[in-house]
Every structure is written in C-alpha cells, then in structure tokens.
C-alpha cells in the first residue's frame, strides 16, 4: 500500500476531530476530496479504517494501527525537516503551538516576540483551542507544544509549569455584585452578559454554565478582554475575563472585580509536549524559552 503525506495528515485530522468534515477543514481539503482520499486509503489497505455514523466517525482496529504509524512517520518527517534546516540557512523551520484563549491573549505575545526576533528563520503556527482539545492534539502529534489548563486529562503528555490564570467577574462599580463578598457562576443568573465573540474561553464558559442549567445570553459579543471591561465599566452588564486583563484595565476604568469562587476558575496553565516523542531542535529551543530557560 502507498499512502502519501497528505493521506496521513488527513487521517490524523479526521481521527482527532471524529469527523470527516472537520478533519477536511483542518487538512485544507474540500469534503469531497477528503472523502475520496479516505475511500482510496481503505481500498489500498484492503480493510475498513473508519466506522462512519450519524455523529461522526470512529477508528476500527486497523484504523488505530494506522493512526499509530502515521503519528510516528509524520513526527520523524518533522525532525528530518528541522535537522536539514540547520544545514540550510534559507530553509525556514516551523513550530506548531496550540494555546487556550487566556494564554493566547494575555501571555504568549510578550513571551514569543523575543524568541522570534532572535530566530529569523523560524515561523510559529499558533492556533487557539480549548484545553481538552489541545491535550488530544498534542497526544496525536498535530502540534509540538501546547499551553493548557492542567485540569484536563493529560495522560501521555509531559507538563511544565507556565503561569497561573484566574477568571474574575467584572461589572460597573455601582452594580449589585460589587457588594457581594463571593461570586459563583450561579449568582449571575438573570444578569446581562458581555461575552467574547468567539474562542476557546467562551466555549469553556458556556460549557460550565450549561452544567448548572445556566444559559449565557450575551447582550453583545466583543473581540477582546479590554472591550469587555470597558462595556462592564459603563454599566452594560457583567463579563468574565482573566485576572491579568483586569489588572491592566482597572487602572483606567471604573470597574468592580470579583473572583469566581469555582475550582475551575483557577487555572494553572502548563506547557505540554508528548512524552514519547523527542522535539525538533527548533521546538526544543522554543519550549526552553517559554520555560524561562532560554
């Protein structure tokens, strides 16, 4: 059987997403092209690789075996490109980095800038994901480094401390919440919400709200944490943002800040890599820099 690199990458993305549609998008292929490739792979293998259902796809035993080897092959190819890159000045190297919303917005830009400045031949593919998705993607070999909350399942990963992030509720100084000593998510029932337009953090908040039967219905969705704080200070409603963002905003905005009294609101962010795979030299350099060693 002859599978090319595109075949293997497509199979990995479909396996991670549990969906041919989402896997095709991640692999940069149209749905018909992706479906045809997968059918051809099964024909070449002479065995069924995917069980297709109404809710997505799952791997057969043969599919699990292919997934294992595809991860090894693509990982080795990444190392080959990196090592050759050390010998060719004009050949650029790329590190794939996944991060949750707080890390992406509040911590990584300042950390990544000096490393990129001193590595002119390096590029970073930076994508936002929820922490659970990051753990799965790193385990499957879709990226070299992740920044996630260590509250999620991290079997098969090696974690390194990064920062501690706490979620807080922001509102106007004359809001009723300003008089409360402790605020839980359930206390926000019936409040007007100011939410993020999209992203992993908003998905996380929506999921936590759904667990207690609370549906967040935003009055407005905004792009960034500063915009949420600005709206809250004007009395538009309440928002939930990382404490690091509030420290910056409260210097110029009249806002009330209350820590969320929920275990999931305190998130120790960690760097993560696969335990059984050696990083490329470029990725190792970036990891050490983010750890404060480089």
Automatic annotation (TrEMBL):
Molecular-function GO terms, alphabetical: DNA binding; DNA-binding transcription factor activity
Keyword annotations from UniProtKB, A to Z: DNA-binding, Transcription, Transcription regulation
Protein name, UniProt field: LysR family transcriptional regulator
Entry similarity comment: Belongs to the LysR transcriptional regulatory family.
Family annotation (PANTHER family): HTH-TYPE TRANSCRIPTIONAL REGULATOR YBHD (PTHR30419), LYSR FAMILY TRANSCRIPTIONAL REGULATOR (PTHR30419:SF2)
Signal peptide limits: none
Source species: Sinorhizobium terangae
InterPro entries: HTH-type_LysR_regulators, LysR_HTH_N, LysR_subst-bd, WH-like_DNA-bd_sf, WH_DNA-bd_sf
Taxonomic lineage from the root: Bacteria, Pseudomonadati, Pseudomonadota, Alphaproteobacteria, Hyphomicrobiales
GO cellular component, one term: cytosol
Domain HTH lysR-type: 3-60
A Pfam family matched in the record: HTH_1
